[in-house]
Amino acid sequence: MSVLVVDDLLPQGYADQIEYDLMSTPFPWYYIDDVTSKSYGSNSGFAHVAYDLGKQPTEWYAFLKPIVYHIERAHGKRMTELLRIRVGLLMPNGEVEYSHNTPHVDFTMPHYTACYYVTDSDGDTVVFNQHLSSTGLTNITEEALVNYAKDTQFTVDGQASPKKNRVCIFDGLQFHASTKPKNNSRRIVITVNYVS
Q1: Residue 110 contacts by C-beta under 8 Å, 6 or more apart in sequence?
Q2: Do 68 and 79 form a contact (C-beta atoms < 8 A)?
Q3: CATH number of the domain that 63 lies in?
Q4: Distance (Å, rounded) from C-alpha 180 to C-alpha 3?
Q5: CA-to-CA distance for 127 and 159, rounded, in angstroms?
Q6: What whole-number distance in Å separates Cα of residue 192 and Cα of residue 190?
Q7: Which residues pair with 171 in a beta bridge?
Q8: pLDDT confidence of residue 37
Q9: How many structural domains comprise the chain?
């Protein structure tokens, strides 16, 4: 599977409500040094993990969970396990030589990743040809993944531009990267990781 891009994922009223609520003052955003991995430390942003397998969901989980069923329909595969629902916010980047954040995988077990775009923005999701299974890593530790990302010349398999109510779905073991916006004030994405 390469990158599956589906527009108009949700009913318009639900998409509008998600955008409104996530951009309202009461929504709890938490600063993190790195949106990809705590070991990289150079891709700062804000996040809210509404659901994380094995942990208590936040009060926003019930509101966001219907997205899961629409992703399942768009993907055409039944979900057998939901791993995480994370809302991410990236602010504009001022670096001249910047192309994207650090390539990474969200989990090291087989899974799918779906990125739902809350607002129109720039800052593509870039999916690379490199797959965790072809890294040659026998001991998949955080340090090993950091070193692999530093030493690898990644090649692009596909990408998706942020457009409100669009989702892109891909094999979660493919390395991928977010991109900070340059022309917009924010990039808000709901990332859903799941097993099918």
Answers
A1: 172, 173, 195
A2: yes
A3: 2.60.120.620
A4: 20
A5: 6
A6: 6
A7: 112
A8: 66
A9: 1
108-161: per-residue pLDDT in tens? 999 999 999 999 999 999 999 999 998 887 778 888 888 898 899 999 999 999
Return all residues near 189 (Cβ < 8 A) that are at least 6 apart.
87, 88, 115, 116, 117, 118, 125, 162, 178
Say how far apart CA 187 and CA 93 lie, in whole Å: 11
Q: Is 164:186 a contact under the CB 8 Å cutoff? A: no
**CB 5: neighbour CB atoms within 10 A?**
18
Q: Among 103, 100, 83, which residue's Cα sits nearest to residue 191? A: 83
Residue type, position 26, single letter:
P
Q: Provide the domain limits for residue 133.
A: 4-195
Give the start-end residues of each E strand in 109-186: 112-117, 125-131, 156-160, 166-171, 174-177
Nearest-angstrom CA–CA distance, 64 and 72: 14
Whether the model clears a pTM of 0.90, i.e. scores above it, the answer is yes
Please tell me the distance from the alpha carbon of residue 56 to that of residue 51, in angstroms, as a whole number.
7
Distant-in-sequence, close-in-space partners of 135: CB < 8 Å, separation ≥ 6: 148
Cα 88 to Cα 94: distance, rounded to the nearest angstrom: 19
Answer left, alpha or beta for residue 156, where phi above 0 means left and psi between -120 and 50 means alpha.
beta
The secondary structure element, H or E, covering residue 88 is strand 81-90
User: Going by C-beta distance under 8 Å and a sequence separation of 6 or more, which residues neighbour residue 147?
Assistant: none
Q: Please state, in angstroms and as integers, the Cα–Cα distance from residue 49 to each residue in 109, 178, 190, 193, following that order.
A: 19, 17, 9, 12
